[in-house]
Amino acid sequence: MTSEDERNGGQRALGHGAPGRSRDALRAAQMYYLQDLTMEAIARELRTSRSTVSRLLSMARSTGLVQIQVNNPSDRTPALAHQIRRRFGVEAHVVPVADSVNDSEVLDRVAIQAARTIGPLVESNATIGVAWGSTLSAVSHHLTRKQTHDSTIVQLNGAGNTQTTGITYASEILRSFGQAYGARVEQFPVPAFFDHATTKTAMWEERSVRRILDLQNRMTMAIFGVGSIGADIPSHVYRGGYLDREDLDSLQRDEVAGDVATMFFRADGSHHGITLNQRSTGPDLEDLRQVRRRICVVSGESKIDGLRGALAAGLVTDLILDEGCARRLVGI
Questions:
Q1: Cβ-contact 13, 48 below 8 angstroms
Q2: Phi, psi (degrees; rounded to nearest 5) at 4
Q3: What residues does CATH 1.10.10.60 cover in the chain?
């Protein structure tokens, strides 16, 4: 059979359209991973080309039909995850990363693991709060598709500042989550911080704003990173023009260790009396603690103080972090 005939034969044998391609990807994956057939044998059985089989297997991996797990008996990460689970009472996923890997690569690897961990946890009829930031932006690039029904992605905090509306930045993250899970997306078109606490109080009475706040109150899952002023890869809120010198001085006076969705807390997890929280549009931390599943993604040892504060505040149920940060967390 010539290459042209092979392509035509493959097109006749394989299903057309998205549902057909998914079925073909599943069949190819079952034969390759469960029956140990070679790609040549699969191509013959499916009456297509080896290159098509390769694309089907890639599709099976990228869409979550196949998830690959490597069990390394010398791997230290399961022991680290167990220690974190026992000490902090959270479900931990530790990403093995060598000390020589640079911060950008660490972030990318953590983001890939986070995307693969989050996918199976997303269900139909869910309301999922998503924060914006450097970490969640990285995660959004690696999400695998999973079709859900009647699910909503809602923005956790406003994104505007004096230089930009923040809509483009936040909407790209939210859109990626919405497309991955077939969910409706609800943006929160308010600034990250109001200039005056009284403005926030008034806006929170507006019906258009209340609608988003009511959605947040019905969240079944929240996904966020931890912000930190001194991180090697600075959190977007600290480098994106959201805070002026007076704001940063205020955070220092209030002994802030970090933030989740632009709501700040101290190293001991307390947050009462932090001035900037009165103007922030992020969710009240008391309310966030009521969400059934709260997934925190952290990359980089320099975020350790913020992470410890978030854990002390009881904001996390599921934690995805790199090995170096995990070692610092448990004191190894």
A1: yes
A2: -65, -45
A3: 3-62
